[in-house]
Amino acid sequence: MILVCVILTIILWFWAIFDITKSRVKNQTTQKIWLLTVLIFPVFGSLVYFQLKRKFIRFETRKFEPKFNKNRI
Question: How far apart are CA 38 and CA 56, in angstroms?
């Protein structure tokens, strides 16, 4: 049972680190602070990050406007 808890904790920790590095945060300093928090306090930092991450991430829709050349044959 302890082994399962340890494995789940490690998965949560790596998931938080991966999510922090791939997220579009509003400020790069914020991203570094969250990364340090999760690295220093793996369980507590990960849980707090996932609870508060919506406040620190930009939710912008990506614009895809290709400009095709209509004169080409």
Answer: 15
C-alpha distances (whole Å) from 16 to each of 6, 10, 29, 33, 60 are 15, 10, 17, 13, 21
What's the pLDDT score for residue 16? 93
Residue 51 and residue 13: Cα distance in Å, rounded?
14
* 8-20 per-position pLDDT tens digit: 999 999 999 999 8
Query: What's the sign of the alpha-carbon dihedral 44, 42, 29, 19?
Result: negative
Average pLDDT, stretch 14-33? Answer: 88
